Amino acid sequence: SLHRRLVDKQRRLTQHVTSLHEVHAPWGVSRFQVQAALLGIPAEARTPVRLSGVSQISGAVAEQLRDELREYAHLGGFTHARETTPWYGAAIGTAEQAREAVTVLARLATESYPPARQRVGRANTQAGLRPLTGYAEWGERLALFSGVLATWQRLAPEVYRSEPERLAAATAPRAERSAMPWLERRKLLQRARSLWVQGRPTPEVLHRALTDAASQLATWKRLRVDGGWPRVPDGLAEAVNLHAECERDLAALRGFVAIPDDPEDTLQALVADSDTPWQLPRLYQLRARFAQLGLETLLGALAGGDVTPQLAVAAFDHAWYASVLDEIRVREGGGTVSGAALDEVAEDFRRHDVEHLRANCARVRREAARRLRDAQDQHPLQARVLRKQAALRRRHMPLRRLIDQASDVLFAAKPCWAMSPLVVSQVLPPATLFDVVIFDEASQITPADAIPSIMRAHQVVVAGDDRQLPPTSFFRQVGGDDPEAADEDGADEASVVSFGSGFESILDTLRPLLPTAPLTWHYRSRDERLVAFSNTRIYDGALTTFPGVIRDDCLRHVVVPHDGATGQETSVTNEVRAVVDLVLEHARTRPTESLGVIALGIKHAERIDELLRTALGGNAGVEEFFAEDRAEPFFVKNLERVQGDERDAIILSIGYGKHPDGRMRYHWGPLLRLGGERRLNVATTRARHRLTLVSSFASHDIDPDRLTSAGARLLSDYLAYAATGGTTTGGPASANGKLGPFEADVQRRLAESGISVVPRFGVGGYRVDFAAVHPGMPGRMVLAIEADGPSYAASRSARDRDRLRKEHLERLGWSFHRIWSGDWFRDPESEVEKIQAAYEGSVAGVPEEPPAAPPPGPATAAPADTNMPGQVTPGHDIVLRAPSLPDQRPTPD
User: Fold this and answer.
1) CB neighbour list of residue 475: distance below 8 Å, 6 or more residues apart
2) Beta strands across the sheet bearing 595-599
3) What is the pTM for the complete model shown?
4) CA quadruple 755, 756, 759, 763: dihedral positive or negative?
5) Which DSSP helix (H) or strand (E) runs through 781?
6) Residue 806 and residue 813: Cα distance in Å, rounded?
7) Can you list the positions of beta strands (E) in 491-531?
8) What are phi and psi for residue 207, nearest 5 degrees?
9) How far apart are CA 259 and CA 321, in angstroms?
10) What is the mean pLDDT of residues 812-826?
11) CB distance 690 to 737 below 8 Å
12) Quick one: what percent of the chain has pLDDT higher than 70?
């Protein structure tokens, strides 16, 4: 019953989206587009006129009519200036005739005449005849070639070498015979019959064929230039067909304009003057066309006034869009559903959807319990073994042996196992034990490490991001006593042993073999400026990020002074001190927010950790913040170890400094390696609420010409991005392009009511339609106003449109209000009043000073939903077991 109610609500919401944004033929517009267009028409152009022939006016026809109305208004009467042109006197009285003439001319000039000329000329050259001098000779030569072909089909080719004119005289009827000795005639007759290819012809047929051959030979001798005998060139059929097509097009064109026997020059002149055929009948044709499409009433309403081209087009648009809207309403069976009813349906859907997901969890638990009970009933000895092992405190049975003895009950009790690839190899027997193996953070797992897990399952699911850290080779280096030195000097991957030759990770290995499903929604960052840089530079804008209520401190850059001391090129002392001060400040002022420190190099991370431990001895009262039993404990890690981690706040410390004399030093450790930009991508996207970048140099200290690796260039750009607070890569309140009529109308009316809004607010793939600004805090947004416009329709499901986006915006601190475009179109004043009430409530709920962000928990975690993936321990397999037995293939279910 719950599922049926959920499906019904989803169907009704989907019907609304479909009816609102379905493009209707023949106009090529949706109801939303029509209503938005009507809102954008000025008051002086609005008219009660409706077009009787609106079903004939498609979107393309309407656009053409706009151009024609502008032309009609500009002409102001039936005058037309004619110029000398090859089209002069053409029989073109309507636009259809003009279009037909231009179409025929275009086809003739591009598709018929040039190929025919080329093919006939090639056939003539191949036959060895003198060059063609004009179009009239095309048909003569083709007729000659066709006659030779017909002769070859009846007589042997030797006929042309056998004096065909004498053979024709010998076979002539008695009344037409010339004087010839009887014996000579007999011999010639026998010879003529011997040349016949098949059967025995009648005297009349034989005579006619020899006569044609004699005529062909005479013509050939007159035209040949190589002394050859009559022959058939290659591609004769193609040449004949092209010539016939050319003849048809010429005949069609001659129905409009005079064409001489040799048409080539005329065709070129006609093509060069392609505008004239449209201008010849234009004045009376426009009037006839308007009458045909039912525009007489509109023209009559506009007549007698000072009508500008712009006003005429706007009046037509109002009449056309209003007529189209009436037709759409007729097709849909009446008026649209009210916004209040849609709000109720959407609220019911959200409630039922959450209840349905909870019910699914209960169903899964119940099914797992039932299967465990069945397994215990079917295998009592296995259940006894497991109970005995569970009761032991030590000396448990090895897992391999336990699986061998009690696999059915064991897997029924624990259908899902979480293990690292190494543990899988160490503790599980080499058999197909599982139905599905899932790799998370697959970009960090080498193929060699993944194979033992894959061989233990029937199916594999790979989750990973090839633009984050690859499998690290830092601890696999060979041939050096100090791996730190290699890291700090920026050694590339060629200096380490390759353990995955050919493929970097299991993600790269299996990508060509498995179907892919991109996960593009980003949930971690509560302010999308924290991820906007990576979204633009790393993911090419593919991520869907959600704007937060802007706070000024979400991204900042702290530049420490260069002290000129030696030995600090890889870990600047001032930077270490600054990071420790920032950590202690955070622990005192924001103890509820989790914190992590990321250093680009290991030495720098160790120095920060060491100084922090020393400083904690003199800072009482902050010990609880650094406790290791917190849900998200504080950490200090180098760049290679942070993938998968996230914290409310992140301090990213560069560590690398200048030479003692102040010159820039461009040895930036892992960022110079192949894939360094991926490492920086990981480091800059770990923060949920705020990120502080600490360095001893700024972007203007860097010489771009000295940057040779992608990671170094990205760091330089990120320094500039952080220095501006995240406004250089798409500002937090950027709007793309010109507003549409609906958006402009909403913004204008809200501004008149005292509500300042920013349209299309955000920097990522998802933007709030209208973000209302707090009246006393210009940098604080309070209300997300969304309409059922294109972004609403672009969502792939009702869950995305009507639950997930709203819930996630509210988690980010927004209040939410929906505008239904149908209600706005019918009564915008009432909708403005509703927005005013929602806005005032949102403003009243905002404290004077923004509070610190809540601690990690259900409020910031991703909800249990298939469209919103949660966090999984990085670098681990999750091996799922379906209810099939170990020695069976999983069923299709």
Assistant:
1) 483
2) 555-559, 687-695, 647-653, 595-599, 635-638
3) 0.65
4) negative
5) strand 781-787
6) 11
7) none
8) -65, -45
9) 45
10) 92
11) no
12) 87
